[in-house]
Amino acid sequence: MRRAKKITRQEYTIGEENILEVKDLRVNIKVDDYVLNAVRGVSFTMKKGETLGLVGESGCGKSVTSKEILGINPNNCDSTGQVLFRTKSGKVLNLLTLDKDGEVYRGIRGTEMAMIFQEPMTAFSPLYTIGNQLAEIILIHEPRTTKAQARQRVLEMLKKVGIANPEKRIDQYPHEFSGGMLQRALIAMMLLCSPDFLVADEPTTALDVTIQAQILELMKSLQQEFGMSILFITHDLGTVANMCDKVAVMYLGQIVEYGSVGQIFHNPQHPYTKGLLKSLPKMDQSRAEKLYVIDGAVPLAVNLKPSCGFHDRCGECVKGTCDCQEIGTYTVEPGHYVRCALMERKG
Ligand SMILES: Nc1ncnc2c1ncn2[C@@H]1O[C@H](COP(=O)(O)OP(=O)(O)OP(=O)(O)O)[C@@H](O)[C@H]1O
Ligand SMILES: [Mg+2]
């Protein structure tokens, strides 16, 4: 069971330009008879209007991290650290001290922060029309709005996200929408409350490539218009280069490298980041040539010994260091950080 968090009156401050500061976030998940250390000391900041790409292999803790920020991890998850968030009114809250189901958090979710999921089909109920489900969001958050006003706003938003013939579409059910249209409707739903902070968790993975490109372009233009900060979770480094300002590379519950898109793509330091970049298909690669793969798989984060999480898959592992001690974070240049013992050697 998740321990009840004490609500404190402590005042928090964050950098003037920042909307979010995550400090030493740790999330442990109780599974049957063991505890999974899914997130192991994650820290990052996000400026207003900035897009941060969170990348890494399946199971490295990207979704658990983002769900903890939104307070929607299930009850078998327990967290420590700080998640400092600047609300629209300018107040800074440590979200980890809030009651996840309490009024304050519920008020923040939707109006201040929102999430777009990988699978849009599961985000809608099959029993109600798209229009009714979108209008409900407005009616819940703005009780003074009439149903007719809400419907009008839904129509405008459906138009804005590029749904053709919205007058007809508004009264249709989710099964009458294609995957791409549902993702557009989901983006419309999220935008209706104009959140300042958005988590997009693999928002285009379920879509085919041409629709993917359209949705990404849509998100980019809407971000410019609404000035949102986006935490963009993806496996796809190509999407990161296209969408993001900064990149955090995650491995086994830790951020192993963080920097601007230019720093990560042109001067990667961590062997894991280098491996991810090497495994990207190249334009001049022949079809016969096999894609590079990083050998092995992400281990289960249970009873981990002090070491670099990547050491047993790393071609540059230094025995006696990487496999037996906790690795610190090194600054490559301002704004570019890496958690790798090889940096010590480079001086
Ligand atoms: N509710 C849960 N109960 C038990 N284990 C969980 C739960 N949620 C996540 N996990 C485990 O926590 C680890 C991190 O999961 P997470 O979903 O954050 O990975 P991810 O990086 O988002 O992966 P993907 O790219 O596949 O979405 C995984 O080992 C996963 O199996
Ligand atoms: Mg995930």
Write up what this structure looks like.
This protein has 347 residues and is α/β, with parallel strands linked by helices. The chain has a domain at 18-112 and 195-282 and 292-346: Rossmann fold (3-Layer(aba) Sandwich), CATH 3.40.50. The protein is 30% helix and 23% strand. The protein has 11 helices and 12 strands. The strands form 2 sheets. Strands 6-7-8-3-9-10-12-11 form an 8-stranded mixed beta sheet, with helices on both faces. Helix 4 packs across helix 6 and helix 6 (179-191) runs parallel beside helix 7. The N and C termini lie far apart (45 Å). The model has no long low-confidence stretch (mean pLDDT 90). The chain binds adenosine-5'-triphosphate (ATP) and magnesium ion. Magnesium ion (MG) is lined by residues 62-63, 201.
Shape: globular
Q: How far apart are the first and last residues' alpha carbons, in Å?
A: 45 Å
SS field, number of helical segments: 11
Give the CATH architecture of the domain at 18-112 and 195-282 and 292-346.
Answer: 3-Layer(aba) Sandwich
**Overall strand count:** 12
**Helix amount:** 25-40%
Q: Proportion of β residues? A: 15-25%
Judged by helices, strands and strand pairing, the structural class is alpha/beta
Secondary-structure element order, as H and E?
EEEHEEHEHHHHEHEHEEHHEEH
CATH superfamily of the domain at 18-112 and 195-282 and 292-346: P-loop containing nucleotide triphosphate hydrolases
Q: What's the CATH C level of the domain at 18-112 and 195-282 and 292-346?
A: Alpha Beta
Q: Which ions, cofactors or small ligands are bound in this entry? A: adenosine-5'-triphosphate, magnesium ion
Biggest pleated sheet? 8 strands, mixed
Which fold does the CATH topology of the domain at 18-112 and 195-282 and 292-346 refer to? Answer: Rossmann fold
